[in-house]
Amino acid sequence: MEMTGSLQQILAQYPLDGSAVSCERYGAGHINETYLAVTSHGRRYILQKINHHIFRDVPALMANIGSVTAWLRRQSGDPRTVLHLVETSDGRSYLPREDGTFWRVYDFVENSLCLQQPETPEDFYESAVAFGTFQQQLRDFPAGTLTETIPHFHDTPDRYRLFRRALEADALGRAKEVQPEIAFVLEREGEASALVDGLRRGDLPLRVTHNDTKLNNVMLDAQTRKALCVIDLDTVMPGLSLYDFGDSIRFGAASAAEDERDLSRMEMRLDLFEIYTRGFLSACPSLTAAEVALLPMGAKLMTLECGVRFLTDYLEGDHYFATHRPGHNLDRCRTQFKLVADMEAKWGQMRVIVDKLAR
Length: 359
Ligand code: ADP
Ligand code: GN1
Ligand code: MG
Description:
Elements: H1 5-11, E1 20-25, E2 33-39, E3 44-49, H2 58-75, E4 85-86, E5 95-96, E6 102-107, E7 112-113, H3 121-137, H4 156-169, H5 179-187, H6 194-200, E8 207-209, E9 218-221, E10 227-230, E11 237-239, H7 241-252, H8 270-283, H9 289-293, H10 295-316, H11 328-345, H12 347-358
Antiparallel strand pairs: 1-2, 2-3, 3-6, 4-6, 5-6, 7-9, 8-11, 9-10
Helix pairs in contact: 3-7, 3-8, 4-10, 7-8, 7-10, 8-12, 10-11
Bound molecules: adenosine-5'-diphosphate, 2-acetamido-2-deoxy-1-O-phosphono-alpha-D-glucopyranose and magnesium ion (MG).
């Protein structure tokens, strides 16, 4: 099997169980470069090149992950439920290289499933339990000790500001092709501040949140299909519960993939919305009434914001999200806007579901 010399050199810095025999690209993340490393003893590890263009302060990021996983480990009796970072042989949580890159190794979460879309409604329920539990277990964590790894990450009005900047620059002359999408964004600007306003007014509590609660950032147990472990902790920082809830609905309650080109296949499934809401509320009883009331808005704004981010990246030349075909970010942006429009059409029903489950 293939393994470049530099990957071999990196893995040689780690006290692995056996010697590395293969190391290949792995997973469907859009941000980091992820590899699966296998050793002569059959042990598996995840090796990642951390995207330091996006995460500017890697030491602070790794300190966040260290303190959050240590806290979670104290809350749970089962080591499989918490992501485990493997230190280098000289005791470092990450490996800086002379070429300016940064690497880290995690134990592979074995006997687990990582899904791109729920295969059954129960899978989606379990992902809600995983993310709800994560938030519940961190409710007393001193949020102020965490670094904001990406400032203003879910500040939707700030995402609008960056979108306008990209639109004005129109560096690749792409704006003329995407006039309907631009109009869709601008028509909704008035609503964009609903969540951050709630925080500013003190109506919504600042919590430690995951902020990237896609279904493929949670592992289910392969045998029981129960919630096992939350992964991809780079964006763990102070935030709102609505960010975590909303981003899960955006990705997992969608009837098609994030980059589906046939928009007629894309809708927000109310059955999945209900299932996720039930799982999240049951696992995170510390949610306040104000938070619960804004759950539909969380879903809508996280979906709108993500579409705005895809469109911004398209206008700027696709340098943030990993893309695998021309127009990939535009396809992604269109699915998000289709979902937003569908949520608007189903708004009353979303509210009824939340009210029913909150009682
Ligand atoms: P990105 O930020 O690029 O999304 P992730 O940390 O989510 O990076 O990793 C990408 C994918 O790699 C995940 O969706 C998952 O499939 C897999 N993965 C990551 N960490 C582990 C792990 N510890 N055990 C098993 N699979 C993992
Ligand atoms: C990125 O890292 P990944 O692939 O799990 C992004 C999220 C977006 C998501 C869209 C750090 O998530 O914010 O919602 O793509 N992560 C970062 O699929 O920007
Ligand atoms: Mg990920």
